[in-house]
Amino acid sequence: MDPFDSNSTERANLPRNMIENSMFEEEPDVVDLAKDSAAFPTFPALDPDEVAYEPRSSRLLVRGLGENDMDEDEEDCESSARLLGMSFMNRSSAHRSNSSPYTRQAPPRSCSRPSARTMVVCVLFLVIVASMTMVLYFLPGCTFTKTGCRKENKTTPIEPPFPWSQFRLPHSIRPLSYDLTLNPDLDNMNFTGSTVIKMVVLHNTKRIVLHSANLNISKATFKLDDGEASDVTVLEYKPRQQIALNFSEELKAGQYCVLTLDYSANLSHTYDGFYNSSYTDKDGNKRVLAATQFEPLSARKAFPCFDEPAFKATFLIKINRKPDYMTLSNMPKAKTTPLNNGLVQDEFEMTSVNMSTYLVAFIVGNFTPVSKNVSEILVSVYSVPEKKEHTDYALDAASKLLDFYNDFFEINFPLKKLGEYPLALACFNPPMIVLSCLLPSLHTLICSLSFLSDLIAIPDFLAGAMENWGLITFRETSLLVGKQSSPLEKQVVASVIAHELAHQWFGNLVTMSWWNDLWLNEGFATYMQYMSLQTVLPQLDIGNLFLAVRFRALDKDALNSSHAVSTAVNSPEQVEEMFDSVSYEKGASILLMLNASLSGDQQFRKGIIQYLKQFSGLNTDTNDLWNSLTQIEVSTQHQNVSEMMSSWTSQKGFPLVTVSRKGDQVTLTQEHFLLTSDNATHTSSLWNIPVTYVSDNCSLAPECRQLFTLKTKSGTFKVPESVKWLKLNYRNTGFYIVHYGDDGWAALRDALANDVSVLTHEDRASLIHNIFALSRLGRVSFRHVLNLLNYISNETETSPVTEALLQLNKIYQLLDKRQEYSLVARMKTYILHHFGSLMDKQTWEEQESVSKQELRSALLETACGLDDENCTQQAKALFKQYVDSNATSRIPGDLQQVVFNVAAQSAEDWPTLLNLYGHATYDAEKRKMLRGLASTQDARKIVWILKAGLKGNLIQTQELPLVISTVCKGFAGYLFAWDFIQENWDRLIEKFPVGSFAIQTIINSATSQFSTQAHLDQVQGFFSSLKERGSQMRSVQEALETIRLNKRWMEKNLRTLQKWL
Ligand SMILES: [Zn+2]
What is the pLDDT, as a whole number, of residue 22? Predict the structure, then answer.
C-alpha cells in the first residue's frame, strides 16, 4: 500500500523457526476453557478432563475479555444447556444486548426467543436432563483433572463461550480456498454474501477460529471430509473481530473440512472493507460505486476469513450486479450468467496462486478502460468514463515498468498463468477431492493462460494506492494525468505505479509472515520504485525525491518514540502504525545502503532473485531475505549480509558517526543519534556501518569512494597527511549522520565557500541536513549552521537548496507560532537575502526539467509565503489571467500551488478559487486549489473549511488530513485546527482508524508547531484523556517528544538567533 496522501502476546517477537514450530504445538491452555461446549456435530460426548474443573480464576480471565458477566440465572441455565451440548450463545441470545462483545451469530434454535411458558418448560427440561447427566457422569465421586482427583463434585462452573483469547489466530487450521458470492445493493448500500471456505486440519483441535467484523451471519454449515453438511453455531467475540466454532470431538490432523457462511452487512461508510463511494459526473448526476480496501485488517469486513497474511489461499469470486454496472476483481472474468431476479452474475477465474486475504479486491460501478499488451499481459487502466483521456500516461508508464520488472526479477508477472506455481497450490498436498475443487474445470485452466493486470482510479480513496493482486486501486491523483499536467505530476503518478507494481512481486508473490515485518513489503516496494524509475523514466529526476525522503526518514527515526524496522505487533492499532516512515522510507534507505556497499552491481539483484524464487508463493521474515543475500554475496569484505543488516532492522534509530583526525590517522566513533529532551536516555546500540568517504584528492566520481566497515564503538583508518578534508557518507547512500568536529566542519565550509562543485549535490545536501540535525541534537551551535549556509548564495542545485529552505522554514514556523516577531522579521530577511538572487532568477514560464521545477516551486513558494512583493505580484497576475480566460489559460503545473496560495490570501479571490475548486474535474489541480483555500489566514474561512472537510460534501473527507496539515502551517489556523481535532476526535477516528497514516498525519501536523510548556500540557492532557481511543499511539509519543525538543531548542537558541540573524 502507499498510504502517503494519507500488548501482550509474544508470538511476533519469536524468531521464525519458533513461530513455525509453534504452529505444531498445542495451543495455550488458557484459551481452552470452553473447548467442550460446541454443538457440533450433534449431541456431544462429554470429556471430564475438559468439562468439569476449570479454576474459577481462569474462567474469569476469559470472562474479563468480554466485560459481559452473566447473572446467576443465566449461569444456571447456561450450565444445563452446556451439559446438553447446546451452545450458550444459541440459548441466551435473547438476553444479550447488542453492545455485548459476545454475540450469537447462528439462527436461533431451541430455547431462543421463548415465551414465558416455553421458557419454564425448557428450563425444567434442561434441569432434569442435566441433573441426570451429572449424576451418571460424576458417579465416581470426583472428576479427574490434570492434577488428579482434586475436589469433590458440586455445581459445575460454566465455561465461557468464546474459545480463543489471543489477537493472533491459532494455526491448527489452514484455509485452502475461498468461494465467495457477493450481492452488493448499491441502491440501499448494503450487501449479502456467501463464503465457502475449504480447510485442512494441520493438527488436532476442537475449534476453528477466524475473523469477521460487522457481518450478520445468518446461516452456518460445516462438513467434515466426506460427511454430511450440518448447521453449526458460530460464536463471535467482537473486540477481536473473531468468530469461532467449537467441536466436541477433535478434528484430526489431515482431515479436510468445509465451512459455509451466509451473511449480510452494510457497505462501509469509511474507506476500508467493502465500502460505498460516490461522485458527481459531468452532467451533475450522482454516481455510486462500491470498492474494497482490505489492507491491513479489513477483508474480514467483507467476508469471514482467516485475515492474517500467512493464511494464503485461493479465491473464486462471484458478484451479482445490475446489468448496467460492471465488476472487476483480481482475476479475469470467466463468465457472466443471467439470474432470475433481473441481475446478472459475474464469475471470475479462481486465483492461480495462493494469496493473502488483504490482497483480495472487487469493485462494482461504471468504469472505462484503456488497454495495451505487454509481454503477453493485457494491462488496462480504468477510470470513471469522463476521465478516460487522463489515463494514457499511466498506461504507458505501467507498461514500461512491467517490462522492467519482468526483466529485473527474472520472473514474469506472477499472477500470469495457472500452473506456473503448482507447488504453491498444492502446498499441503491435499488429496484429489480438494485439488478437483481447486481446478474446477479445464475451461478455467485455459482461461487463465492469459492474464490481465488492471489499474483503476477510484473517486473516493484514502490511501495513495493499494497493490491488490491483478487489480491495483489508486486515488485519482495517483493515476490520472491531465493533458496539461506538469512533469512533477507525472513523477507522482509514475512513482506510485512503480511502487504498486513492485508489490506484485514483493508482497504479493512473497509476503511477510506477519505485520511486524511489513517493511519487507513496503521498504522493498519503496526502494524499487526509485530504482526502477531511475532506469525506466530518467527524465523524471527521481533521485532528488529519494534523497529528500531519506532525510525525512532520519528525522523521524531520531526520536525516542521510533521503533525497530522489525518490531512486535500485537494489536490492530499497532498493525496500523506499522504503515509509517520506518517501514517505507527507512526500509528503502537501508536497502540502498546495502546495495551500495555490496561488491559488484549485480550482487544485490542476484540475491533478490534468489529470494523471490526460493519463497515464491510463501511467507517470509526478515532473516530469510538476509540469508538469501548472504548466500549470493561472495566478497570477503562483507562476509555476512545477515550480520550487518540485522543491526539495522532489529534496533530502532541509527548511528551518529563522529570523525576526529590526527595527522594521517582518522578515528571514527559511533553512538545512537537519539533526540531526547531529557538528555538522560542513553542506549548502547551499535551498528555494523558500511562507512563510505571521499576527500579533496578525489571527491566526485564513484571510483573516489572508499569503504570502511565500522562494527565496534570506534575504529581507525589512515589517509595521506596532505588530505585537507573528508566527506563521509558519499552521496548520502548510508543511513547515518556524521559529525566532523569543529576542524572538520571548518575545512568543509572553506572548501564549499571556494567552490561548490568540489562535492556532489547529494553530498552538499547531506552536509546541510546533518548540521541542522546536529544542532537539534545540541552538538553544534546554531552559529555553525549559519556559517555553513553562507555558501548557499552560490548554490544552484535543487537538493541542497530545498533542504536548506525546508530546515529554515521549520525554524521560521516555530518562531512565528511563538510570536517572536522581531526574530520572525529577521529570519525573513535572512532567507530573502541568502536565496534572493536565486529567487529572482526564476521564470514564470513553462519549464521542462523536473529538477528545475522542484527548485523553482520551492523557492517561489517560500518567497510568496514571506510576502516578497515581486513574487506575489507575479502570482496575482497569473491568477487573474487564469480566471479571465475562464480557466482555459495555463498556469505551469509546478507554479499552480504558489499561484493558488497567493490568491487565497485575498478576500476577493478566495471565493473565486472556491468556485473554481467546485467545478474543477482534474484531481491533481483540484488538490492544489484545496491546499490554497486551506492556506487562508481568515479565521472564519479556516473554521468553515475544517468543518466542510469533516462533513464530506463539498470537500471529500479523504482530503481532511491535507486540509488540517495545511491549516496548521499558518499562524491564523494552527490553534483552530488543534481545537477542531480535540472537539471532533471521535468522528475523526470513525473515519480514519486509530494509528492509521491519516491519523498520524493529523496528530503530527497539529502538534509539531508547538514549543511551549502550556501547549505540551494541553497535548498531554488531551491524549491521556482518550484512553483506549488513541492514547497509546506511537504518534502521540512522537508528538510529545517533538514539542519537548522544540521547546528545548528554542530555549537554547533564541539568544544565538538574536545575536546572529
Ligand atoms: Zn506499498
Answer: 33
Residue 988 pLDDT > 90: yes
d(CA 1019, CA 283): 46
Long-range contacts of 645-648 (CB under 8 A, 24+ apart): 645/590, 645/594, 645/688, 646/622, 647/686, 647/687, 647/688, 648/565, 648/590, 648/593, 648/687, 648/688, 648/735
> What mean pLDDT comes out for the span 347-370?
94
Rounded-to-5 percentages of helix, strand, coil across the chain: 45, 20, 35
Cell of 466: 493499494
| Backbone CA torsion sign across 810, 816, 822, 828 | positive
Q: How far apart are CA 758 and CA 751, in angstroms?
A: 7
CA atoms within 13 A on the CB side of 656: 22
CA 592 to chain centre: 21
Angle between helices 587-597 and 641-649 (to 10 degrees): 160
- 848-871: pLDDT as tens digits: 899 999 999 999 999 999 999 999
CB 968 within 8 A of CB 1005: yes
For the beta carbon of residue 844, count every other beta carbon within 10 angstroms: 17
DSSP string, 697-738: TB-SSGGG-EEEEE-SSEEEEE--TT---EEESGGG-SS-EE
Query: Hey, which bits of 424-467 come out as E strands?
Result: 451-458, 465-466
pLDDT digits (tens, 9 = 90+) for 181-222: 999 999 999 999 999 999 999 999 999 999 999 999 999 999
pLDDT mean over 642-648? 91
**How far apart are alpha carbons 11 and 18 in whole angstroms?**
9
Closest C-alpha among 1005, 936, 1000, 942 to residue 968: 1005
What pLDDT score does 559 carry?
A: 93
Ligand 1 centroid to Cα of residue 594, in Å, is 20
Alpha carbon distance 325, 366 (integer Å): 6
Cis peptide before 239 (omega within 30 of 0): no
**C-alpha atoms less than 13 angstroms from C-alpha of 728 in its C-beta half-sphere:** 27
Distance 464 CA to ligand 1 centre (A): 9
Distance 1005 CA to ligand 1 centre (A): 23
User: In DSSP terms, which residues pair with 191 in a beta bridge?
Assistant: 184, 265
Q: What distance in Å separates the CA atoms of residue 911 and residue 929, rounded to the nearest whole number?
A: 11
How do 689-695 and 619-620 pair as beta strands? unpaired
User: 368 C-alpha vs ligand 1 centroid, how far in Å?
Assistant: 25
Look at residue 117 in the predicted model and tell me its pLDDT: 56
Catalytic residue numbers?
500
Mean pLDDT, residues 733-749 taken together: 97
Read off the amino acid at residue 174: R
Q: Indicate the SS3 state at residue 133.
A: helix
Strand partners, 262: 194, 219
Question: How far is ligand 1, taken at its centre, from the CA of residue 525, in Å?
Answer: 6
DSSP characters for 157-176?
PPPPS-----SSPPSSEEEE
